[in-house]
Specification:
Blueprint lengths: L7 E7 L3 H14 L4 E6 L6 H11 L3 E5 L6 H13 L5 E4 L11 H9 L6 E5 L6 E3 L3 H18 L11 E4 H6 L11 H12 L4 E5 L1 E3 L10 H29 L1
Parallel strand pairs: 1-2, 1-4, 2-3, 5-8, 6-9
Antiparallel strand pairs: 4-7, 5-7
Organism: Pseudonocardia benzenivorans
Keywords: Glycosyltransferase, Transferase
Protein name: Polyprenol monophosphomannose synthase
Length: 252
């Protein structure tokens, strides 16, 4: 595996993930021992934050950011990214705490930043050759594939899995995209960040991963989360096409 260009921070947002947190952090460090882990806990009432503090006290590679309320996945990642940019980290990874993202795939994401000409943003993809989904019912797979198709058509984005949440960013991407302006709170945060990176001209690669449905805890997907994604993506797509029309008219 090619060495990543500088220290790596893995950002893991949590809400009610006490059963999953310790095993996932252990697997991260088994896969990439030199990586630091930042747990961003949104005031979990099940004691996830307290467990994270215990893990951090026993391992200097683990840090914890406590937030007082559940404000959405996107807001948790933005807070984690902002903290990462205060430190020496040159690569920032985002992944779920529920085990759906296999830490064993992490070395391949990091290698893709450096190999074959390199990349600025690497997406762990379920929908490129070699990627797969395990233990999802048919309706969830249909919903996921439909959401990705909708985003690709609305935005004209070539990314196969633009909604996936297992990613590795070079520091420069997070600095240049001005994460303080990201307002997406739910799962459309993933679309938002990839779309911004594409529009800014950053090099994006997808590598295959195995996505496995969580065994413990409850999914955070909701009607509100899906509704936010639908209207935000539609708005981005309309704005994108209007910009193209204005440029064409200006050249005419």
């Amino acid at each position: 595996m090619a060495e990543p260009a500088g220290p790596v921070l893995v950002v893991i947002p949590t809400y009610q993930e006490r059963e999953n947190l310790a095993p996932i952090v252990k697997r991260v460090h088994a896969s990439v021992p030199e990586a630091d882990v930042l747990v961003v806990d949104d005031g979990s009432p099940d004691g996830t934050g307290e467990l994270a503090d215990e893990l951090a006290a026993a391992d200097e590679r683990i840090r914890v950011l406590h937030r007082t309320e559940k404000a959405g996945l996107g807001a948790a990642y933005v807070a984690g990214f902002a903290l990462a940019l205060e430190g020496p980290y040159q690569v920032v990874v985002e992944m779920d705490a529920d085990g759906s993202h296999a830490p064993e795939d992490l070395p391949e994401l990091l290698e893709a930043l450096e190999s074959d000409g390199g990349a600025d943003l690497v997406l762990g993809s379920r929908y490129v050759p070699g990627g797969r989904v395990v233990n999802w019912p048919a309706h969830r797979q249909l919903l996921s594939r439909g959401a990705n198709l909708y985003a690709r058509l609305a935005l004209g984005a070539p990314v196969k899995d633009i909604t996936g949440g297992f990613r590795a960013f070079r520091r420069q991407v997070l600095e240049d995209l001005d994460i303080t302006t990201v307002a997406s709170t739910g799962y459309c945060f993933q679309v938002d960040m990839a779309w911004r990176a594409q529009q800014a001209g950053f090099r994006i690669r997808e590598v295959p991963i195995t996505f496995t449905e969580r065994e413990l805890g409850a999914s955070k997907m909701s009607v509100e989360v899906m509704a936010e994604a639908l209207w935000r993506i539609a708005g981005w797509g309309v704005s994108h096409r209007l910009r193209h029309v204005r440029r064409a008219l200006a050249r005419a």
